[in-house]
Amino acid sequence: GATALLGRLIAKGTGEKLTDYARHALFDPLGLGPTEWSNGLQGEAAAASGLRMRAPDLLRVGQMVLAGGVWQGRQVVPQAWLRQSTTPVVNIEDSFRYGWHWFLGEVPVGAPIRTERLIAGVGWGGQRLFLMPALDLVVAMNAGNYRRPGLGQRRVAYAVLTELVLPAVA
Hints:
Structural class: alpha+beta
Shape: globular
Distance between the termini: 37 Å
Strand order of the largest sheet: 5-6-7-8-9-10
Mean pLDDT: 88
Helix content: 25-40%
Number of strands: 10
Largest sheet: 6 strands, antiparallel
Strand content: 15-25%
Oligomer: single chain
């Protein structure tokens, strides 16, 4: 609900459609290609869900976040906002916490095993953006697991990260 409200506040505050504002304030500065954003019940972009972008473009978003909001020498998102948004606010399941629209936790890496900080953007159907600052690593996943329950989506994405990607890079 908070994301839907935030999207509405952005539209009201800027006087623009959320899709137009996102395009010129974030997507164009990052050089993103086409995006698709489904509409909610009132015919406006559903801020909390339905944004689709290509995996390479999602990677750019993650790289910009790891760089403190900077893309190609330009400050696109304020560094202080990113720092605050990736600070834990609420404890959720297991060892994961939630910041401002980011899931936060730690994952096992390497041999001998150590834990590293994980920042994750989570979308429905298995879409994921994993950021691991200590490894300077960004992993983007697009998937279509829309009929799989949320827990199943999480397990699959987490397994791909911890069992396939991290052993290959850490």
